[in-house]
Design goal:
195 residues; alpha+beta; minor pseudopilin epsh fold; 4-stranded antiparallel β-sheet; 8 strands; 29% helix; 23% strand
Length: 195
């Protein structure tokens, strides 16, 4: 005796796909709201790490390092504070001292996190470009050198000229304020809620 197997109809497949699409449409925005504070904290940790690198390299190499960012976007850059590294060209490199030579850090904050200036409201950043996003250059940046604003210069003694404050904003997560003490290099953070 043969047993007939029941197949799945096209209607049943379409209903299943529709249910999955509806659940996904509801879950993605909820997950985005849950991950917003995590992205903001990750951005703060990135900046703290770059500042630490700038301070240590300035002291080890006996040369100042400059940290700059692009207001309203998520781009930042750390490099020696000389014209060779900030004029837009490629600085000369000594092939014998690659491991111990100066560093250049060019980075992008996590998606949706931007540098806030003057207490302004959130500026929608352009869709980030980078190696994972087609249409970008080799460094992953689509900004020119003259868009960068200098925030801090780390001197060879490990200090900066002034106390520094930078505000990172992620819509839905508030504002994370990083304070860098000029004499000690200690970084403290505070969080502000969006109005």
């Amino acid at each position: 005796m043969r047993i007939r197997r029941r197949g799945i109809t096209l209607i049943e497949v379409m209903i299943t796909v529709a249910i999955i699409a509806i659940v996904t449409a509801i879950a993605v925005p909820i997950a985005e709201v849950m991950w917003a504070p995590v992205r903001l904290d990750a951005a703060g940790d990135s900046i703290r790490g770059v500042w630490s690198d700038g301070q240590s390299h300035a002291m080890n190499e006996s040369r100042p390092y400059r940290f700059s960012f692009v207001p309203g976007k998520g781009y930042y850059r750390l490099a020696p504070d000389t014209a060779d590294y900030w004029s837009g060209g490629t600085p000369p490199r000594n092939p014998d001292s690659e491991s111990s030579g100066p560093i250049v850090v060019e980075g992008l904050l996590p998606r949706g996190v931007v540098f806030q200036i003057d207490g302004s409201t959130h500026v929608e950043a352009d869709e980030p470009t980078g190696p994972e996003h087609p249409g970008s250059d080799a460094t992953g940046h689509d900004v020119s050198m003259n868009e960068y604003v200098t925030l801090a210069v780390f001197r060879p003694d490990g200090t900066t000229n002034d106390d520094v404050e930078v505000r990172l904003q992620k819509q839905g997560a508030g504002v994370l304020v990083l304070h860098l003490r000029s004499l000690t290099g200690v970084v403290t953070t505070t969080r502000e809620i969006e109005p």
